[in-house]
Amino acid sequence: MALMQIAEPGVAADPHQRRLAIGIDLGTTHSLVATVLSAVPTVMRDHEGKYLLPSVVRYLGGGEVSVGYPAVAAAGQDPHNTIASVKRFMGRGHSDVQTLAGHLPYDLVSGEGMVRLRTIAGEKSPVEVSAEILRVLKERAVETLGGEPEGAVITVPAYFDEAQRQATKDAARLAGLNVLRLLAEPTAAAVAYGLDKGSEGVFAIYDLGGGTFDISILRLQAGVFEVLATAGDSALGGDDMDHALAEWLLREGGGDSADPLWRRQILQQARSAKEALSSADETMVALPPSPGCAALTVKLTRRQLESLILPVIQRTLPACRRALRDAALKLDEIDGVVLVGGATRVPAVRALVEGFFHQMPLTDMDPDQVVALGAAIQADALVGNQREDLLLMDVLPLSLGLETMGGLVEKIIPRNTPIPVARAQEFTTFKDGQTAMSIHVLQGERDLVQDCRSLARFSLRGIPSMVAGAARIRVTFQVDADGLLAVSAEEASTGVRAEVVVKPSYGLNDEEIANMLQDSFRHGAEDVVKRRLSEAKVDGARVREALATALAADADLLEPTERVAVDKANAALAVALSGNDADAITAAAEAVEAAAGPLVQRRMDNALRRAIAGRSIDDLGD
Amino acid sequence: MVDSCFQCGAELVAPPALCASCGAVQPFRADLSLFTVAGLSEIYDLDVQTLRTQVFALQKGLHPDRFAHAEPTARRYSLEWSTRLNEALATLRDPLKRADYLLRCQGVDALGEQVKVADPELLMTQMIYRERLENIMAARDLPGMEALRQEVDKAVTKVVQRLKELLAILPCTELEAAGSAVRELQFLDKLVGEIDRSEESLQNV
Prior knowledge:
The structure holds 2 protein chains of 2 kinds.
Chain A: E1 21-26, E2 30-37, E3 40-43, E4 53-54, E5 56-59, E6 65-67, H1 69-74, E7 82-84, H2 98-101, E8 107-109, E9 116-119, E10 122-124, H3 126-145, E11 151-156, H4 162-174, E12 179-184, H5 185-197, E13 201-208, E14 213-221, E15 224-233, H6 238-253, H7 260-276, E16 282-287, E17 296-301, H8 302-314, H9 317-326, E18 336-340, H10 347-357, H11 370-382, E19 391-393, E20 400-404, E21 408-413, E22 421-427, E23 436-443, E24 453-461, E25 473-479, E26 485-491, E27 497-502, H12 510-522, H13 524-554, H14 560-578, H15 582-595, H16 597-612
Parallel strand pairs in A: 1-11, 11-12, 13-18, 15-19
Antiparallel strand pairs in A: 1-2, 2-3, 2-4, 5-6, 5-7, 8-9, 9-10, 13-14, 14-15, 16-17, 20-21, 20-23, 22-25, 23-24, 25-26, 26-27
Chain B: H1 34-37, H2 48-62, H3 72-92, H4 95-105, H5 120-139, H6 142-166, H7 175-204
């Protein structure tokens, strides 16, 4: 038998045979690929020296496909066959993207499963479209590296759900890539900086893209990356700055601002001017002629631009504060601030970030490249080229909870909890003799069921008949390392059990997730009022329920005058319960409890007497 | 009692999760305390940094990502250990949860619904603090908020110090006093959360 060659894990068998691995940032507007060459993470360029590949795919007749800049150029003339922003469709059903589709020129095919787009080349799924982008990046890598990459790490937004992650993996497989791991974008950025600096500490990742803003706080310690908090705004980005500037230019130009062509031209001018002012102090903006208005050139200074976009960029700060609070960190505990996304090139953004975090953001890496570079570093480690083994602890993107009385949500596992995780909570019955309990599993940050997303419902049956509040039902949530949730409910005395397994966020897109987070933030105060009212109503109903039970059994224990007082208070509570005043309900409930005091006392005395007389506890309820 | 590897029989070093000699992940032990799972001795006055280092070092060997290609039993053991390690970190890093956990290990549920807060002084302090917070909000008084926060932080430090003394020797013999300190810390904890939320809402308007 021939001797087997044994290599120590984590060490390449032969230093000259370095394993090829790539990192891919598959973005909404553009994508790129990077690798680690001689220990230096590097982006790979096309023949023209460009490293960004616009995430745009155009289907032509005859099986031909064009990807990137040529497809962008054709978008105007061939909108139905030119697919941009396909990332928004990944892992989504037809009904999920209805609202999104209204703004896009695509011909969507309705049906089961993931949405499909009708093109000249036939129906295409978002997975197939993404695979075209990945295929181009893979070819680029093969040419640059001189061989097939052994594996790839692809980045996804932090709160991409299971379906979206699966779709991304499928696209990579379709493009002939071996996916080593999917990596959250902010984590990738932190990896790029953290490992580059060889430093440990807490990093804030400020990611301002074209249309979304994300802030994440991560800790790197002993090779373990821990996500401490994430927050963001899915409807805030560099595009909003362009629009703010365009509005101003429209007013300066004085033309017909309803003319769509003119508006588009102005918007383009605004974008160019913004980019020019990232390095220059002033620029001249040429406004094209419009009906009833001659061409015009206006001077725009950086200071003017900054005052126009300040309201936009200040909207990133509440999310920053929220992330810090969720991470339970003070500003001086942040060791580094990493900028990601092209919009962070704007000097005013950098100044704002510096002012907020009291430190210069780290800018020695290109904000467009940093995510791909981080992915490349991890890919390199995973194929065994580096000794440092990283462990990236994933977290729950949204809180998980249960519906309780009054349409309220009781959070069982808060968002940002590291997974795998298991949490249990005890619940009890609401009514005497209740033998079944309905378990409704929810996802989201809001206090009311109607504002959260329903994941699953199941019932626990066979609870022994007991007085309200006596049963002990333990509900356990277990989330595994892949984000799969299992919920079980068990009654303590009998051991009756029911359970369900759910995919936490199937069918929910990242924008919806971000919106849900934002809603919870915006509606915090409103929720408190609603919660108080809801709780008061539950309490009030419970008091009425208990009184009815007591009266049915022992009405004779009350004197006639006492009975009148009880009935009067009870009627007042019923009136209060039909209204929406939490304080009034609470006061009315207290009045009933006070009026019923003698009844409760006498029932208790009787029960005690019976117990002392040696009767069994079972009789007490009758 | 010495634990030995279920696969090769080698002696296991605490926590008995991974065999140092054959590398096998061991069957999960639900009976072990959170301290034991994290490889620490039972103590209230612990260094959170040490705890974190210890838990992450163990996670690096036990996390399910390390067993992606292993057989189902090993994957299940890894999931159970890793889940428990996360629970240990979440519980033990927090002075309130750590104290509550230690008391629960002694059969005392200091924060249970059955326990009525009978300390009128604590109730009074609560009311005064809340009233102050309401006034600060009404006046949009950010410096006042900062002063309140510092005061509450000091109160937290004092209660934690008291707990360190009460729980210096385990098992704790002064369960009453420790229970009431835990309740006081919970009240302060909630107050800090409210101060955070209030401050945030003042800053964001």
